[in-house]
């Protein structure tokens, strides 16, 4: 291959291929258009389910959820019902920038979700979504004072749920956050050594969750004239395109530019509460009303006097009662405490997954492995396939699959037993609540949700130009970035080398290497940070 050149990956959270194709044709996003004209553009298929956590982790590791074990905002399943929020310490695989560092090349990584707690790397990392308030969020840690001096208005994220009915304020603040992030990126590109640069802009996702009806109309000049909020939303996406132009100038013409999104977006009509549905179907049994609330009261009271879950479980293990104490501590969680587990066969795990309450695996398991388990799974699938769309009366769920029909890998046993997917239906199921007025509930403010059709654009000296890319999956990004840098591709990655992405000598000669799937040093988070991350997920509409 000709001399390897630098690579910039621009993450645009929630960018939908269909929308960006329209905006490019309309002339709203000239810098995105410039990249598409120089290179190739197409759909980047997200994970099952198309959710931030598994999607970005798949992109940064080149692995599918069957290998990394993450399908939502909780760490891989260990049998507990109350689960810890996923974070960088949950990711056992090396990231693409860690692999690049092993080859003595430098990376700059800014605001990629789920990179806190920061892990050692060669270069500079500024962690992204789900970083606790007040945390030291850079690697090396010594870079944090410099960041605050260079970009004192830098912010990691904004919770769109905090802006209910204040759309103009949300757009204004997201625009300011995007500007500050881009300014920091330009300074990094101009002053720090780098071979690989990866930044994620999240405002595109946050606006689409609650202002999606406006996003859909920003290429309609009349709608923009008639509605000031639609005009403001258009201005945000136009300004993001301008920020892309700044990054292109700072990186230089010789750099390769790859634009990616973790998922696409579409309209949202109703939230689906599957645990309420399971209760209605008799597969999940609730305790008398108020049982969960009393558990929450006890948990709050104990926390106030400094007694936490880890305190109790540690004492239990010290006196030889670890498992039994742990089960009782789990019941302090309002969700767990409100369910009669001795009469529950299935519970729903956000997002899009169902766990059979399996004996020997789950903390309160009652379903016996073997024939009984298979019967419960088959019955659940039949009931899910029979669910009707309340708008049309037609089948609600286009995809209902056992986990081994969708996934393979070392962690497949940690994934839910059955998965569903809405595809282009206007529904989501991010919540695990059961104490709700019905299975289908109109969102309080949100009107947009995720789709599998994300965005990919690739342009640069060694990247091909021409027709739309087909069949590109999110875990294909990492191995092809490594190839662009002239580095071998780890054999354990699920992502495929795509010779059709390249031109000339670069389309040949991919090298592969054996590399340990374990990413090495990891740092956990405290219980206080865990609670802070839970609050952040609530602010983003995921809890």
Molecular structure report:
- The protein has 543 residues and is α/β, with parallel strands linked by helices.
- The chain folds into 2 domains: 354 residues, Alkaline Phosphatase, subunit A; 172 residues, no CATH class.
- Helix content is 37%, strand content 15%.
- The chain contains 19 helices and 20 strands.
- It has a 9-stranded mixed sheet with strand order 5-4-3-6-1-7-17-2-18, sandwiched between helices. A 4-stranded antiparallel sheet has the order 10-11-13-12.
- A hairpin with a 3-residue loop joins β10 and β11.
- About 1% of the residues have low confidence.
In brief:
With 543 residues, this protein is of the alpha/beta class. Helix content is 37%, strand content 15%. It has helices at residues 17-26, 30-38, 52-61, 65-68, 96-102, 143-150, 167-191, 203-215, 221-226, 228-251, 274-281, 291-304, 309-318, 322-330, 334-337, 371-385, 403-406, 477-484, 527-539, and strands at 7-12, 40-45, 107-110, 123-126, 138-139, 196-201, 256-260, 264-267, 270-272, 346-349, 353-356, 399-402, 418-421, 427-428, 440-441, 448-451, 453-459, 469-473, 489-490, 512-513.
């Amino acid at each position: 291959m000709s001399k390897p050149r630098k690579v910039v990956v621009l993450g645009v959270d929630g960018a939908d291929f269909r929308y960006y194709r329209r905006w490019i044709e309309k002339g709203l996003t000239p810098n995105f258009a410039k990249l598409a004209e120089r290179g190739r553009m197409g759909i980047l298929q997200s994970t099952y389910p198309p959710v931030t956590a598994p999607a970005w982790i798949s992109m940064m590791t080149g692995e599918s959820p069957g290998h990394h074990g993450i399908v939502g905002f909780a760490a891989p399943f260990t049998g507990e019902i109350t689960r810890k929020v996923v974070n960088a310490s949950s990711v056992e695989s090396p990231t693409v920038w860690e692999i690049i560092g092993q080859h003595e090349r430098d990376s700059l990584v800014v605001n990629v979700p789920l990179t806190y707690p920061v892990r050692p790397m060669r270069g500079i990392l500024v962690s992204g979504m789900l970083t606790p308030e007040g945390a030291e969020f850079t690697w090396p840690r010594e870079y944090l004072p410099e960041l605050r001096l260079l970009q004192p208005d830098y912010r990691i994220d904004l919770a769109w749920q905090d802006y209910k009915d204040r759309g103009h304020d949300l757009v204004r603040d997201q625009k300011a956050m995007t500007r500050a992030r881009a300014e920091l990126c330009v300074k990094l590109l101009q002053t720090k050594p780098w071979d690989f640069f990866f930044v994620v802009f999240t405002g595109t996702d946050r606006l689409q969750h609650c202002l999606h009806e406006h996003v859909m109309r920003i290429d309609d000049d009349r709608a923009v004239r008639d509605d000031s909020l639609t005009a403001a939303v258009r201005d945000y996406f136009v300004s993001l395109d301008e920020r892309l132009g700044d990054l292109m100038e700072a990186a230089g013409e010789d750099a390769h530019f790859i634009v990616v999104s973790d998922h696409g977006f579409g309209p949202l009509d109703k939230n689906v509460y599957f645990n309420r549905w399971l209760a209605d179907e008799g597969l999940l049994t609730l305790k008398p009303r108020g049982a969960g609330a009393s558990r929450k009261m006890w948990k709050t009271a104990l926390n106030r006097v400094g007694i936490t879950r880890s305190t109790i479980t540690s004492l239990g293990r010290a006196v030889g009662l670890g498992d039994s104490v742990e089960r009782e501590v789990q019941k302090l969680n309002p969700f767990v405490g409100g369910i009669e587990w001795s009469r529950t066969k299935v519970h729903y795990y956000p997002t899009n997954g169902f766990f059979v309450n399996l004996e020997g695996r789950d903390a309160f398991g009652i379903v016996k492995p073997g024939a009984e388990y298979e019967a419960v799974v088959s019955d659940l699938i039949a009931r899910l396939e029979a669910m009707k769309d309340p708008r049309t009366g037609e089948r609600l769920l286009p995809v209902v699959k056992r986990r081994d029909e969708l996934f393979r890998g070392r962690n497949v046993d940690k994934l839910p037993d059955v998965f569903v997917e809405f595809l282009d239906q206007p529904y989501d199921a991010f919540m695990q609540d059961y104490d709700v007025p019905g299975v289908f509930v109109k969102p309080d403010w949100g009107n947009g949700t995720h789709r599998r059709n994300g965005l990919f654009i690739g342009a640069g000296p060694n990247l091909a130009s021409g027709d739309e890319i087909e069949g590109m999956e999110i875990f294909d990004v990492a191995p092809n970035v490594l190839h662009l840098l002239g580095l071998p591709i780890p054999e354990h990655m699920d992502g495929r080398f795509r010779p059709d992405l390249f031109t000339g000598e670069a389309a040949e000669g991919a090298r592969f290497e054996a590399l340990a799937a374990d990413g090495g040093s990891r740092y956990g988070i405290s219980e206080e940070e865990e609670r802070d991350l839970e609050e952040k997920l609530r602010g983003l509409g995921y809890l």
